[in-house]
Amino acid sequence: MVSFVGLTTASGLMHLASAKQPDYPTIEDFLPKPALFAGTPFAINRIILIRIILTVVILVVLGLTASHAKLIPSRWQSVVEYGLDFVRESIVYDVIGKERGKRYVSTITTIFFSIFIFNLGAVIPFANMAATATICAPLVFALWSVYNYWAAGIRAHGLGGFLREELFPAGIPWPIYILLAPINLIEITLIRPFSLTVRLFANMLSGHLLVGMCLAATQFFFIETNTKIFAPFGVLTLAGGMFMTCFEIFVAGLQAYIFSILTASYISMSLGEEEEEEDKKVSQAAQPAAQLAAVSA
User: Where are the membrane-spanning stretches (predicted)?
Assistant: First the structure.
């Protein structure tokens, strides 16, 4: 609904301004023509180029930070370490558990920072487009999340045990399984990846449209019209554009957090409660040895 309203309003402003002025954002911004290698399977348009550049930036920044890490961290190292600790402690360990979550720290950390930086493309100068504002990138992250969910469950229970746990939950009268099992199968194969994809894609797309709509209206009121009576409306739309830009930064982090939390929750559900109890026993058994080692040291 937001996307429809944004497109309708932007189209109306374009018509009011001038049919010869192609300066306003349109739906073609989301389907740009290839800029490199056009006509080949390796064609790269603007959005793909943004994804490549942001991926390189993530790798270079984290690589340089790790290679120059010091015992007494610098301010930048402290910021990076805080982000890593936040994902590890507040997302992975809180949802999955410390013992079980160690295996998935790197995966969920990668998902969180990749989505966060990709989302920030919406407010980065010269990019001005979230790398997750088209369906492909959110779909890849969603499939990656669901893959880890299936892999964790199969590793813990085997394929048969995993499907039995998911399709035939305990404590339900058997006739209900006739309806419940197909529904659960559709959920774990289609609904979960679909919901993850649409949630991320729709939020970033609608945010981009709202920012574009505010700035398009600002240009219309300040530049395209020759009447000063519209200037107050331009001030309002400019303020709205600035507010929405700041709000986009908040949404970029929020969507990365929600996606990572859901991924961790799916993995935790696939592992089941039995393995969680075993991990707690292992952790408790290791505590005396750790305390003895600390005293000996």
Answer: 43-66, 104-124, 130-151, 172-194, 200-222, 229-250
Nearest to 30 by CA among 242, 204, 192, 173: 204
Provide the sign of the torsion angle of the four alpha carbons 50, 52, 56, 59, taken in this order.
Answer: positive
State the DSSP code for 43: -
Asked whether 279 and 99 are in contact (CB, 8 A), the reply is yes
Residue 36 β-bridge partners: 44
Token pair for residue 7?
């497109």
C-alpha of 60 from chain center: 20
- Contact criterion met (CB below 8 Å) for 276 and 100: yes
Nearest to 29 by CA among 17, 16, 11, 41: 11
pLDDT per position as a tens digit, 38-61: 777 777 888 888 899 999 999 999
- The residues pairing with 237 across neighbouring beta strands, listed in sequence order, are none
Q: State the Cα–Cα distance between residues 234 and 214, nearest whole angstrom.
A: 9
For residue 232, give both structure tokens: 């107050």
Query: Tens digits of per-residue pLDDT, 89-112?
Result: 999 999 999 999 999 999 999 999
The residues, ordered by sequence, that sit 6+ positions from 209 with a Cβ below 8 Å of its Cβ are: 2, 3, 6, 7, 10, 25
Alpha-carbon distance 97 to 93, whole Å?
Answer: 4
φ, ψ for residue 77 (rounded to 5)?
-60, -35
Token digits for 240? 């709205």
